[in-house]
Amino acid sequence: MRDLSNEEKHENQRQGKLNEKLQSEVVGLRKDKEKQLNEILELQNQTIELKEQLSEVLAKVDAALGAEEMLTTLTEKNLKLEEVIEQMEEEKSDLETLHEMNEELQENARETELELREELDLTNARLLEVGSL
């Protein structure tokens, strides 16, 4: 009987530690999610700025059709900006994928936490039952 009680105490402690670990992971995942959302917003803002810069460059090109050297320079800048935009859109896509994975991990952590809480409740109920005998 004492061994059973000790086993249940040990199991409760193990589950409590696991629960704390999972809660810590959830906090970490939430921080990661927040960071990724901020990065996505930053990338979106940068994309908007780059598109505005691209529009400005195109306006300058239209205004300077007679200056071939200027046209060549602006075209090169335009191409570089388009490459940057393309890279940022790829990064945004990667961050969105990470965000989705993060949400799945958080959902799994929540489900695991609920399962562990149910197990803990059952174990506590058993302990009470054993204690009342």
Overall shape: it is rod-shaped
> For this structure, what is the CATH class?
Mainly Alpha
Please tally the helical runs, counting DSSP H or I stretches of 4 or more residues: 2
User: What characterizes the major β-sheet?
Assistant: none
Per DSSP E runs of 2 or more residues, the count of β-strands stands at: 0
CATH topology: Helix Hairpins
Structural class, by secondary structure, is mainly alpha
Tell me the count of domains: 1
- Uncertain segments of ≥5 residues (pLDDT<50)? none
Strand fraction: under 5%
Mean pLDDT: 89
Helix share bin: over 70%
Radius of gyration: 28 Å
How far the N terminus sits from the C terminus, by CA atoms, comes to 11 Å
SSE series: HH
So, CATH architecture? Orthogonal Bundle
Protein model, in words:
It is a single chain. Helices cover 95% and strands 0% of the residues. The protein is mainly α and 133 residues long. It has a single domain (2-132), classed as Helix Hairpins. Helix 1 runs antiparallel to helix 2 (68-132). The model has no long low-confidence stretch (mean pLDDT 89).
TL;DR?
The chain is mostly helical. 95% of the residues lie in helices and 0% in strands.
Key terms:
133 residues, mainly alpha, Helix Hairpins, 95% helix
Helix-strand layout with pairing:
Layout: H1 2-63, H2 68-132
Helix pairs in contact: 1-2
